[in-house]
Specification:
Two copies of one chain form a homodimer. By secondary structure, chain A is an alpha+beta fold. Helices cover about 20% and strands about 20% of the residues of chain A. The first copy, chain A, is built from six helices and 15 strands. Chains A and B meet through strand 3, strand 4, strand 8, strand 9 and helix 2 of A and strand 3, strand 4, strand 8, strand 9 and helix 2 of B.
């Protein structure tokens, strides 16, 4: 992995990554925004749920589905019309979101009737490729491995910042999940707390680990390995529809052995994880011969400086479709009660995905 | 409140409610489904989140946006083409969902690699009015009071069933939240456990109550009462955009004094709660001069037979829009992390709703 770091004219950070050494000497980091960063997001405490909500009012002005010629994630061809990214021989780029929900510069907000706090943290954009018409699953395996290394690098760097307790790389893909830019990209949120869902997962995993001296996901994977829901079974990594899927085409991708975080992956594990990831992405797009929208989230250990032997790095994919025509809406029972109702069996959905043939050499 | 109970030809229950006495003698309960109920939903345990998910494979066949002439929630005019409801002088009707995610008849499922269980519980449909073109907010106040009484009646009856620990009345309104039938109706889910979200709310409320000897929502309301986010302030009930809103147009409706459940409302409280509810619904539809979609959920005490002085009956509304054109999508940070990011301030959204004038006499 090769890396070069820059500062944009508006003060934001840009990091370019390459499989090969970067010729970064003459690169200048562009920004489509001439004015310096403004906005001051803040957190408010939800007393009924004991969780923080972040408020960033300026986000309503963010770039929304621009025509292709205004793609801010394309490389800058004309310096008088700068995008977010420079031309060059980079493969993956990371930069600070211009409209962050969390920022290291956040200040103490005014007092409210509930506790408030600076929205401390960081929101980064990860551009997976220079090719606006590509997709994560269309990238060659060594390019996907680089993406895994980028997530490792950013998790380490962000986790080292005092006050950052959790780093979540994710991708929202498709207009159906609210994506405003179609250039292949994901995001990284660095949180000042372990957020509610990973916090619950960590607590449950810790209790399980203390009782069994093994990981809850590790033990589940060992049971899934020979079951009817496997999509990819490599030497080091797996992909499967979990027995307890909450979305019809939910898929999990994980190293077989528990690995706390991206940075702890061995080269062999990373290579096989890239195969598992690419398999899933190709099966998704092969399912209905069109790009399947999804939310992809990567769970790993908190960056709170403590050991987390209970953690097991893995991705969860939530595609929003039930059938080619019907969306899975989260409504009363899911959103208000947190009790998911599924109208498809994971075994059936796994069978559909198993039947999609894919080639990793693509 | 007047009530008459029937059994449909396929074994499902139907209950008609009226503000005035019902002439139910000659009513026969229809069903559009000639065959008896089938399907056997089951629960699976999610080991990473410690929660149940329910699987009801037959739900994919459910009625989906039929043309108006096939509205199953209209009254039956031609007995050879039965709907779900009989003609008659009823105001509100409740019947068992034909495609339930939870049912009292659920049997023990086969063994899986995670714990499984019968999907014990009940899913009911609440038809708010005979008028397919009306809306909850368009109903006269005494009709809305009847709806509150119906929710009380069903909560008591369902809560009395051994093994039912929580009753959640809710309404999904609008195609944007996945509604398949536009006739004004809501649903009631009776759960075999206290589901994850109410369970967390109960736990937090209990800890607060033990520390302060007052309710967490009660104390929040007392602080909101003179604040900038109030939408309705009556003698017994309020409606407001909460300081910690997670959705741009989120609104809460509650009695001012803590009331554990619908059945504990006094007549005066219920009347004022109907005013608060109608105010919110009319403001929602007045906002952009079109029906605003929303999820409405009513939280109340668990029906586990224990006292719950920490509980405070209230509704939470989650409209899915950020602006007249833009939906609020739940994506990476909300769904995967449980950390909500808002791009609007509750004070701004409250101001918009405050400016909508409504008349409760409508």
């Amino acid at each position: 992995m090769h890396r070069a770091t820059f500062t944009k004219p508006d003060g934001r950070e840009l990091i370019l990554y390459g499989r090969k050494a970067l010729s970064a000497a003459k690169v200048e980091a562009p920004s489509p925004f001439p004015d310096p960063l403004h906005g001051n997001p803040h957190l408010r405490w939800h007393p009924l749920l004991s969780e923080w909500i972040t408020y960033a009012a300026y986000r309503q002005d963010r770039t929304f589905l621009p025509p292709p010629e205004y793609n801010p994630l394309a490389v800058t061809l004309d310096p008088t019309h700068p995008t977010e990214l420079p031309a060059g021989d980079w493969d993956v780029a990371v930069f600070d979101n211009r409209f962050p929900s969390l920022t290291l510069r956040s200040k103490q907000p005014p007092e409210l009737i509930v506790p408030s706090a600076p929205a401390f943290g960081k929101c980064e954009v990860v551009v997976f490729t220079q090719d606006a018409r590509s997709a994560l699953g269309a990238l060659p395996l060594d390019h996907l491995e680089l993406v895994l290394e980028v997530w490792a690098d950013r998790t380490e760097k962000l986790g080292d910042v005092a006050g950052i307790d959790y780093v979540l790389p994710f991708e929202n893909r498709g207009a159906e999940v609210g994506v405003t830019l179609h250039h292949p990209h994901g995001q990284i949120y660095a949180y000042p707390v372990v957020p509610p869902v990973p916090a619950r997962m960590q607590q449950i995993a810790l209790e399980y680990y203390e009782a069994h001296r093994s990981g809850v996901l590790q033990d589940l994977i060992s049971k899934e390995l020979n079951g009817p829901r496997m999509l990819y079974r490599g030497q080091h990594a797996v992909a499967f529809v979990p027995v307890c899927a909450r979305y019809p085409y939910e898929v999990w991708v994980a190293p077989i052995a528990p690995v706390e975080s991206f940075a702890d992956l061995s080269g062999n594990q990373r290579a096989d994880l890239a195969c598992a990831l690419k398999t899933v992405l190709l099966k998704f797009d092969g399912l209905w011969k069109r790009p399947l929208p999804y939310l992809m989230a990567w769970y790993q250990a908190p960056t709170d400086g403590k050991p987390h032997p209970e953690s097991h790095l893995h991705a969860e994919f939530y595609p929003p479709y039930r059938t080619p025509e019907k969306l899975k809406y989260l409504a009363g029972t899911e959103l208000a009660a947190g009790f998911f109702a599924m109208d498809a069996l994971p075994e059936e959905k796994a069978r559909e995905l198993q039947q999609i043939q894919v080639s990793l050499d693509a």
